[in-house]
Amino acid sequence: METILPLWWVFLSGAIMGSFLNVCIYRIPRGESIVFPGSHCVSCGRPLPPAELIPIASYVIQQGKCRGCGEAVSIQYPLVEALTGAIFAGLYAFYGGISSDWAAAAAMAAFLIVIAIIDLHHKIIPNAVLLVALLPIAVWLGWKVHGANGDVSIILNSLLGAGFGAALLFAVFWFSNGGLGLGDVKFAFVFGLMLGWPGALWAMTLAALIGSVVGIAGMVAGKWTRKTEVPFGPFLAIGYFAVYLILGSRLGDILYSFLFLQ
Ligand SMILES: [Zn+2]
Question: Domain spans of the chain?
Answer without folding.
Answer: 1-98, 125-262
